Amino acid sequence: MMGLTNIKSRTARRMSNPLRFLPVAIVGLGLLAGCSSPNPNRIILMPVAGRMMVNALVPQQNRQIFGLGIPETIGSAEQMWLVNHTEAEIVWDVDERKGRVSTAWAQEGNIRYALELTPAEEYVDLVMTIRNVSATTWHDVFAFNCVSPAKAPAFHDSTLLRTYMSVDGDATPLADVPRTLGPRPTVAVYPTRSHAGRLPPFAEAFEAASPVWSDDSWLVVVSEAGDAHMATTAADASFLFANTAFGCIHAAPAFGDLAPHEEATVHTRVFFAKGGLGDFLERYETYRTRGPE
Fold first, then answer.
1. Which residue in 161, 139, 164, 138 sits closest to 230, CA to CA?
2. Is the pTM of this model over 0.85?
3. DSSP of 40-72, one letter per residue?
4. Band of pLDDT at residue 12, cut at 50, 70 and 90
5. Pick the CATH number of 7-290 from 3.30.1340, 1.10.10, 2.70.98, 1.10.1740
6. Alpha helices (H) in the chain, listed in sequence order
7. Is the peptide bond before 71 cis (omega within 30 degrees of 0)?
8. 91: exposed, middle or buried (Cβ count in 10 Å: 0-12, 13-18, 19+)
9. Contact at 8 Å (CB) between 218 and 232?
């Protein structure tokens, strides 16, 4: 199996409200009943028509619904964003037998991206490709991916006592990580060691960067009962982000530098699984070393 790495191929300030995921038209309503799936425990993905949003109904979490804003924004070191979620009119394709959803979108003369989400029982795998079709090189390209407990209140952690990131190799509650309070006190940005000193303008604009780096590329929220977790991961995150107003967490996967007509493909995984913090760390380590199946 392939290890968890970014794959790059060379060829010739608005934040969304995660609670808006639900009251809009859903593509592929047959999926909601789960009748077309051979596995009744498989996560059911329900893309939101016209938007960069997918609802995830998780049978093993009492059919609670989580929100995926994938991506909310794509940006770089030069630009606040190359595309923002409010600018893109998305058309989703649904494979009801496999439960997979996918889309592709382009702004000619600027950017193209393609996205595929594949569900399992306890996680969703994401594959995203970004292509530079502009005339200039982009540096430190990232995607701002949101994971929200839209209709899963046990995972909303306003105290940050149950939300963890890695600091010096230890899973540390964000409540114990120093923060910088910016204009929006519910928002926090956490730089990653691999991108130290290179926060993109999009992240800097929140004026909320922690002075403490994470030495890994994940955030995890443990449920109130301590028996389940919601996590976002990346092979290499440009930065991490949390917003206690909505309980959402973000790991912004890094795509590196893209010259004109270059593209990069990144694999990430979002977990909605049973078990506490230790169970997540075991699952993440397995995924990190083995990669997507």
1. 164
2. yes
3. TTSPEEEEBTBSSEEEEEEGGGTTEEEEEEEEE
4. very low
5. 2.70.98
6. 30-33, 201-204, 277-290
7. yes
8. exposed
9. yes
Q: Map tokens 């595309």 to a residue.
A: 83
| pLDDT above 70: residue 34 | no
Describe the chain by its helix, strand, coil percentages, rounded to 5: 15, 45, 40
What is the distance between the alpha carbons of residues 269 and 233, in angstroms, rounded to a whole number?
Answer: 6
Among candidates 18, 16, 14, 40, which has minimal Cα distance to 153?
18
Distance CA 79, CA 200 (A): 8
Element containing residue 152 per DSSP (H, E): none
Domain boundaries, the chain: 7-290
* Tokens 């970014």, residue located: 6
Say which DSSP state 80 is in. S
Retrieve residue 282's tokens: 């075991």
